[in-house]
Amino acid sequence: MKLKSRLTIPSIVPMTTMADVAFLLIIFFMLTSTFARDTGLDITLPKAITSQTLPKRDVTIWVNRLGQLKVDENWIRPQDLASVLKREFAQSGARGVTIRGDEGVPYGTIITVMDTAKLLGADIILAAEIEAERSGPGAE
């Protein structure tokens, strides 16, 4: 008695089905992923741990979270900024302005200070606040 051999199933993986599955996975992940939206920046200005003192060659404008301004060592009213900057530029010959702002300062206040300085021909530098230097009206 002769035994019949059993049918063997070919072990071929159908590649067309594999490609379909790969494309479906790509489409699935593209549709379910979260896309980055430009909704503005939620930032906190950085704190400096160390600093290096440079020779004075520009005017420093401090802005606290209440929007009050301090030019070098004198607190001024915001509406007096242009005249104070003109006087400082004439006395020191400096054309640079460093703006140091508290992290809670409204963005519009910094823009107003930058515009005023730029209209007077100043070169502007924005700087981080050093925690040890927080003082004056409105500082916590």
Task: Give me the secondary-structure topology.
Elements: H1 15-32, E1 58-63, E2 69-71, E3 74-76, H2 81-92, E4 96-101, H3 107-119, E5 123-127
Parallel strand pairs: 1-4, 4-5
Antiparallel strand pairs: 1-2, 2-3
What does this protein look like?
The protein is an alpha/beta fold and 140 residues long. It has a domain at 58-133: Nucleotidyltransferase, domain 5 (2-Layer Sandwich). The protein has helices at 15-32, 81-92, 107-119, and strands at residues 58-63, 69-71, 74-76, 96-101, 123-127. A five-stranded mixed sheet has the order 3-2-1-4-5, with helices on one face. The protein is rod-shaped. The model has no long low-confidence stretch (mean pLDDT 77).
